[in-house]
Amino acid sequence: MAARSDSSTPKEKKASQPKDSPLKTARPKKKAAPQEPVRQNRTLWGDAWNRLKKNKLAVFGFCWIIFMILVALTADLWAPQLLGSPTFVDTTMTASMSRIPPSLQHPFGTDSLGRDEMVRVIYGARVSLSIGVIAMSISLVIGLVLGTVAAYFGGIWDSIIMRGTDIFMAFPYVLFAIILLAALGPSFTNMFLAIGLIGWTSIARVVRSLILQTKENDYVAAARALGARNLRIIMRHILPNSIAPVVVYATMGIGAAILSEAALSFLGLGIQPPTPSWGLMIADAQQYLVVAPWLVFCPGLAILLTVLSFVLLGDGLRDAMDVKVAE
User: Fold this and answer.
1) Segments forming the whole domain that contains residue 116
2) For a designed S-S bond to 211, which of 70, 80, 151, 230 qualifies (C-beta 3.0 to 4.6 A apart)?
3) What is the pLDDT of residues 101-150, one digit of tens each?
4) Is the peptide bond before 274 cis (omega within 30 degrees of 0)?
């Protein structure tokens, strides 16, 4: 008997084949290639900011400084409307409003002339912060220029500038300021000029020591070999790599300038009445220390917290800008 020929079509053959068993293992999926971590550009100032945020005392100082700046800048918009004028004296109400203890209406009490003590502290902050920043800016510019010239050019320039610095540093700081103010006269402008013109000596010495180290680096020698001018080398290669410690010193110097302004105003050589100043307010209130201690306590506390805040911020910046500090 002849064998039956296979006449089934390819579709029938495919249908007749058994289906895949559900127990059959699935093909393993390809694992996704691991993504490379995104590299963030890190800078000295970015790392310093990250380290500064971890320092609670420095953050407190920074927040207090920002708060005082905002209060001083916006005082004209709300302080006189709520608390009264910091300088106007109502002679008809002086007797009844004199030396009122702290209350809801007058949180810091009133002074001997019936003026609200809180509004005078607020406007005193404007004077103290302005003098501190302007005086420190003057000292910073003079110190940067003289310290850079002395360190970079050396020779006779270094000798002249450093000997002049030694002569300035031989005079007591406050005594020199008193002599300048006695000669120029007490005023707001003469105050920050006197403080600024005698505060540059320490900055000049710090800048000189930093640039003496920085100018020996290889990148400075390479820039000089490529024909870069002295001004370009100083501005592009030396100062940017030496400025961090100067920023720390300047931050602390603002607090020292505020303290100097308060001391000179206390002696009667600074801000003159009726302009409010923290040092002048303490001087006017010292005779009422027993009967009205808040008149001394409130401006004194403002000086303490503000100067302390600049010192804490300066300490935090010093630690944050130190590249040797571990994360």
Assistant:
1) 45-75+111-320
2) 151
3) 999 989 999 998 989 999 999 999 999 999 999 999 999 999 999 999 99
4) yes
- CATH number of 177's domain: 1.10.3720.10
CB 144 within 8 A of CB 203: yes
Give tens-digit pLDDT for 282-326: 999 999 989 999 999 999 999 999 999 999 999 998 888 765 554
The residue among 142, 140, 129, 171 whose CA lies nearest residue 255 is 129
In a domain, 100, yes or no: no
- Kindly provide the b/e burial profile for residues 105-114, where b requires at least 16 CB atoms within 10 angstroms of the residue's own CB: ebebbbbebb
For the segment 191-208, what is each residue's pLDDT rounded down to a tens digit? 989 999 888 998 999 999
The pair of structure tokens assigned to 89 is 């004296």
Tokens 């970015």 locate to 46
| 96 occurs within a structural domain | no
Burial group, residue 87, by CB count within 10 angstroms (0-12, 13-18, 19+): middle
Neighbour count for residue 57 (Cβ, 10 Å)? 14
**Residue 30 covered by a domain:** no
Residue 117 inside a domain? The answer is yes
Q: How many Å apart are CA 153 and CA 73, to the nearest integer?
A: 43
The SS3 of residue 325 is coil
- In 115-217, which ranges are continuous DSSP H helix? 117-153, 155-170, 173-184, 188-197, 200-214
